[in-house]
Fold each of these.
Amino acid sequence: MKLYMCRKCDDVYLNLIQHNGDCDGHELNPLEVEVNGESYFEHEIYLRKTGNIVTITAGLDHPMIDVHHIKFMIIETMHGTFLQRFQLNSESSVTLLLAHDEEIDKVYVYCSVHSLLQYTEFK
Ligand SMILES: [Zn+2]
Ligand SMILES: [Zn+2]
């Protein structure tokens, strides 16, 4: 998974096939992924599974206000990739229906303050 950022517009781009774009003429920079840094615990991923239904929450008490919120989450399983964007003042949580043998491999969280974090272990 490769993401790019335009520092002028504060926008994030997801590279699905081949990156060759810009942002209305602005340069895009690869977005660094934080794997086990200072803000790890604040954005930690919680999984709650009932049968094939899984609820994925990023940061149990994370703020969802203008100055600090989780903008999106990307969930990778062995079968596919899910992208969930969040509104302000909503819960930073999504519920998915998995195939019966499907496991979640990796979750990316993008926070307006802490940028992109990656998780491969869940609570
Ligand atoms: Zn731009
Ligand atoms: Zn944050």
Amino acid sequence: MVEGLPLVSCLCPTYGRPQILREAIWSFLQQDYPNKELMIVNDHDQPVCLDRAYPGVFVHNLPERLANLGEKRNHTVRLARGEILLNWDDDDLYLPWRITDSVRRLWPNPEKWAFKATRAWSSTNNKRYHIARNLFHAQIAMRRSLFDQVGWYAALNSGQDMEFEARIPKERWLQYQATPSELLYVYRWGNGVAHISGFGRDREGKATGWDLMAERTRKPAGGVITPGFDRDHWQDLLDEAAGLPDVDAAELFALTRRLEPYHSLGDGAYLTDWDPERFAFAGQAELETIFGRNFTMMMNNEAKFLAYLATKAPDGGCFVEIGSRSGKSAGYLARMAANRGLGPLQSIDLWDLAPPRWQGTETVEKFLERMERLGLREQVTVLKGDSRVMGAAWQKPISLLFIDGDHSYEGARADYELFSPHIIPGGIIAFHDYCHNHFPDVRRVVRDVVLPSGLWSDPYELRDHNGIWCARKRGESV
Ligand SMILES: C[S@@+](CC[C@H](N)C(=O)[O-])C[C@H]1O[C@@H](n2cnc3c(N)ncnc32)[C@H](O)[C@@H]1O
């Protein structure tokens, strides 16, 4: 348990549909509940795997197909470790508060074994959202002990869910009529994948939905998955909710505020021409000679992405980096500032004055020597000291701010709050280590403080290695 919060296992049986599964995983990764796991069980003969490790996401590829959906659900429950179990259908979407809200309702009521909101969003072809009375097993939350009380799923395909739910005594159900801004789940129909229920009930002598699914699986049925949304579903939901008779203005406002930190995470409309293979710039070869090795703190692709971001920053401000260390990111940023005829990069670091966590063999002398070799010595202003002290006295307008200094919640937040007000409209903010498992506080600052501020547009997440999250300041670009 994390500070009294139970571990929640999200149960995701899947079969040969990696393209849609990536969206279900993304919807899990957006959840604001900390103590969670996603248990994916794939019994298609083509395995799926993730492009890298994601916290709490487990993929089990089985060597053989299981006999029916009931058995597959039972298998998934057996693998799960949580005290609360939530179904997580691979072709549906879950609002980012789904786990938190379900736990908040079910956990304090030990006499209740299962929870459902009585309504849910429903969409067709990723459009045409409306609020439906909830019949969906996909949004049930269950205590693990429920399985001891009522037994396991029956050996059925279509209908295993209803048969199971019918065994839960009425008085053990907790049901809640959620308002539009509280709905937890989006049932999806017509997004290119077959539903077992769509094939009708199992009948003696007839091919079951289970068999027909195998025949109708599209290619590719397996492969490497990068979690993400194919389109901005939360924006679609907001757009459509605005026109619905059962969503009043107050509810629409509440829904918009709740979704604001999450929608369009990852699409970065102005960064669509990012292509690490093709992006090239003057001075790149020298940088690659000195920094060609993938330094663990700054990988080659990330440094190159920073250089690319620098091409998108507006004129009218300087580039600032908090956390320069070896000078890899500094070299790329200073090079781009020089190429664009902007002033010197402002490089802030404590170097040998840093707390033990950052101590190593890097020094300001080594940093300067590398800049010298790159011919960038005049293109870097070295500011040795604590970024919080510098930030409190900062005056210069900034067109690109790269935060890679103190990675604690307080430290990253202070860097953001002290420096970002100096970013000019259209200017870029970027945080390093957004996906790094050792630095969850960087993600927290972005999700709790940066995004909800409403000051930023076009957020984008480079999901390479340690990860870079970036966005543009709203307002007229200068
Ligand atoms: C992850 S490293 C930066 C890596 C660098 N961007 C690169 O490309 O090599 C983090 C750096 O932040 C510095 N740092 C940590 N806390 C700081 C603070 N409060 N003020 C200034 N620098 C700080 C550390 O000294 C360390 O060198």
Amino acid sequence: MKTNVLIAGANGMVGKALVKELKKNKSIKLLTPGRNEVDYLKIDEVENYFKKYKPKYVYIVAAKVGGILANLKNKIEFFEQNQLIQMNLFRCIQKFKVKKSVFLGSSCIYPKSAKQPIKEESLLSGKLEETNEGYALAKISGVRLAKYYSEKYSTKIICPMICNIYGTNDNFNFSDSHVLSALIRRFAEAKKNNSKTVTLWGTGSPKREFIHVKDAAQSLIFLMKNYNDVNPINVGTGKDLTIKKLANKIKKIIKYEGKILWDKTKPDGVPRKLLNISKISKLGFKPKISLSDGIKQTVLEFQNLKEEKFSKNIKVNNFFKHKKYWYPLSLPTYGSAEIKQALDSMSKYRTTMWDKTKLFEEKFSKKVGSNYSVMVNSGSSSDLLMSFSLIDRRLKILKKNDEIIVPILTWPTHIWSAMMAGLKVKLIDVNVKTLNIDILELKKNISKKTKAIFLVHALGNPCNMDEITKLAKKHKLIILEDCCEALGSRYGNKHVGNFGLAASYSFFFSHHITTMEGGMITTNSKKIHENLKYLRSHGWKRDMKVKYKNNKIYKNFEFVNWGFNCRPTELQAGFGIEQVKKINKFNKIRKNFFQIFRSKFSNNPNIYFPEVEKKSDPSWFSIPIILKKNSKFKRDDLISYLEKQGIESRPIIVGNLQKHPVAKLFKELRIKKFKNADYIHNNGIYIGLNPMIEKESFNKMIKVFENFFKN
Ligand SMILES: Cc1ncc(COP(=O)(O)O)c(C=O)c1O
């Protein structure tokens, strides 16, 4: 019968290496539960697991670990979680009579000023290094607890203390990676980006010892067989080197030719922690992989991270750094799940519009509460097809030259689409307080000729839909809604986009969700839905579920309407399927950040934020900042200050389109002056509001504004 061996922490770096090594032993049945099967922080779950699987040997390599930064930031978590893991596991090891266990710790548990190379006896002989005290205290308690269990119950738990581990399955996330993997990533990225310098933490003078994870795993297996003492035993290579030397070694292996700068304001950690390995050496264990070979292998693994590993090991977003701004207008919101979807479509040669598009449309309809959705290749295409559906020869909703009202403060393609469809566009000014269509202007401008209103919920701030629907009803006007900046925004109990005949959405890179490029049209009308499908795809019948009567024409090549080709790819739809799951989470963060910013500066005498209608619940697209008339500074002063500080800004949508050179070409843009749009043009900016922005960057951005307002 096989022996049950539990690896607590099998999904970590050491855990994975252990699994690989132990699999070679055919008499072992490996137990490698994930966190969803057993959470070692919870005693009930650990007990149930031990009761069920009765492990005979246990490797405890589950731990909360990280580099200096993570340790400093999360002292409580490092302390509490490591305590809980060991307490729960030790208790069950004793209770369920496990034959022997290995409890892994690290060289950080030794005092800061321990004599080098550090002998096991120096444990608890002096003060600890502050930067990892939480982790060290917890692990020291573990070592002692193992001893107490041995004294009282003869439970066998041995405690190897290991030097820095690196290698296969290393963690390359800067937020919690260790020095060696962090250096590999820094140099690899610097080389890729042609950066002239790489700045590293501290002085570079501390010395460290490194062991490859494969050697580490083999040492634990070796000790499980050969070591029985209650006192800890060191595991290392017996050789250390300065961080400076290590950095140069990695730099050379990566062939990075820039310069290394040392940020001496950052902590170094302990000056040296070389382990005395005479105890384990005497038992006969020797690591096999040299540091140079190990680094070469790790560099290769980092560079060749396949999609699989890429998605598991790396928060994709961490790779992205805007070249110029630390607070850019937008950041990527997609990750490995979206990339996987796209790769899946490509590897199956299903790249053109197919099942994923349909699935995304269904999910999207559910999300916004509309009956039908039609995905297209951009928000602009959404506006275009909606406009063309109004003048479609089969639907006969409007005629060419019928008047449609559009607000002036919007994205240009919104206006062009109605013009291109042959409708007579009447532009109307916006309300300077809300940035949305001015209701009084709207009332004044509705005439017998007016047949439709094409709204936009600017920057996610819903228009007053009570007033507008009342007017539309009274004058029998069709409403179209441009919701390209308003995914997640609600008015009353409805998602915007459900107040008229159809609504457009954009999934461009910087929008609430992204499919890289992409758009959606939603409608509650079956007829419009059908028509949009014709307009999206050439006017052919192929995408419709209809019976074919005409036998003389190939059924896939029968054309019943005119149309464009505005189809999305399956790669985009795959992105959409993943992104739609994240809408709520993203929008919660956007909302929270917006509120923090607004509440900080709402009393500032120089600026104002858009007013929100009573029944509106906006899902903000960005953070608009508009200067008051008597502001003590000019908008351009603010822009250049932000630019200098590394914060990207831009006009509110495009400002007043009348002011752009294109106005020369179209009289619709010249018929009158729009004084409010002008005001926004001259006094408004917006900055990014992205769910991926780190809290620290967001707070730093607020500080920049505070400083600007102070001066
Ligand atoms: C209000 C509005 N409408 C339409 C669009 C066009 O969307 P897309 O860029 O996907 O073509 C945008 C784009 O930002 C927009 O803000």
